[in-house]
Structures are given as C-alpha cells and as structure tokens.
Design brief:
This protein is an alpha+beta fold. The chain is 26% helix and 23% strand. It has one domain (20-185): 3-Layer(bab) Sandwich (minor pseudopilin epsh fold). It has one helix and nine strands. The radius of gyration is 28 Å and the shape is elongated.
C-alpha cells in the first residue's frame, strides 16, 4: 500500500524580525554603553600616546649622551613646538645653544604638547633649559652632554601632556650633573619642589 507523504507546509508568519520598539531599545542601550566607555577609552589612548612620547624624548637624550662619549664631542637634544607640533632633534652642539639649520627634526604624536604653564602650586612643570627662564615657558628647550656624558649644567625636566587634559602628565628628568636621566609621571600630591610630575 502506498503511503501518503503529504506533510503540512509551514505557514509563513508576517511577524518575523524586530519591532520598532525593540530597535529603539537596542540603539538606546548601545548609546549608553558608548557614553560610559568613551571617556575610559580616551584616557587609555592619552596614556599610550604620552608613554610613547616620553620614551622618544628619553631615548633621544640617551642617544645624545652616547654620541657625546663615543665622539668625544658635545651633543645636544633640542625640543621645540612648531605649529602646535612638538618636535625633537639630536645633533652635535654648536657654540652656545644654537640649533643648526641642517638638524633633522622628528615629530611626536600631534595630540601631545609640552606643559608650558604653571601648576596650581605656582611652579613650572617644564624646567629644562631654554633661552629665557620665564614661566610659562616658550622653548626651544635644550640639554647638552659633554665628552664624558655629563650635562653642561642644564638640569630640569620636560613635561608632556595631552592637548585635551593637563592632569595626565609624563616627564623626562635630567636630574644630576653627571647626566642621570629618569622618567616620571603625574601624581596626586606635589613633591618637595611643588611639581606633580615626578
């Protein structure tokens, strides 16, 4: 006997998909999550940019110090801001602290700037040598290393901040006359010199 293979076909529903209310709820929830995550992501990217810029300046100073001891000549690191762009260069020092026209400048991330103003303690966070001792500072900033790798008396720090937040800081110190270099970061309380970056 032949069996009937007739099975009922599924009925297509016209209710498949999402309702307008469901879509609005999902979009609203995504907006709330984005608003919560955006400041944390911005803070994270600022920290990464600052760490990279700090490392580049520190590395430039180490390179100048190494070149000075290798060549038995005075080498200089110069840092400047041109059109709101922080640039640095490692070059052989000339008389005084002049910067030769043939210097090869390197740029930091465009979101980074030098902290030039006074902090809430009335102290300048950037104290690396410049042609004028004014605060706020204007640059260009310099440090020289002689044939022994010692500084030529220029002690101080260069402090970097993101362009949108001066509370997050990274700095590079020239802390002793024998050319000791160290890196610092922002702290909640000022140190004995009333600086927040140490």
């Amino acid at each position: 006997m032949r069996q009937n293979n007739l099975t009922p076909k599924p009925v297509l529903s016209n209710t498949a998909g999402f309702t307008l209310l469901e879509l609005i709820v999902v979009v609203f929830m995504m907006g709330i999550l984005s608003a919560i995550a955006a400041p944390a992501w911005l803070h994270f990217t600022n920290i990464q940019r600052l760490n990279t810029a700090q490392y580049q300046i520190h590395r430039a100073m180490l390179e100048a110090k190494s070149n000075a001891t290798r060549d038995k000549l005075t080498w200089q690191v110069s840092i400047r801001e041109v059109n709101e762009q922080v640039q640095w260069a490692v070059h052989q020092a000339e008389s005084g602290y002049s910067i030769p026209n043939t210097v090869n400048w390197h740029s930091l991330d465009p979101h980074i700037q030098v902290y030039k103003d006074q902090n809430d303690q009335g102290k300048c966070e950037t104290t690396l040598y410049q042609d004028t001792r004014a605060c706020p500072t204007t640059g260009p900033w310099h440090v020289q290393f002689n044939y022994k790798g010692n500084t030529n008396g220029q002690l101080g720090q260069i402090t970097l901040i993101p362009k949108d937040n001066s509370q997050v800081q990274r700095c590079v110190y020239v802390s002793t006359l024998i050319g000791t270099l160290r890196m610092g970061e922002d702290n909640d309380k000022p140190n004995d010199s009333d600086k927040y970056c140490y």
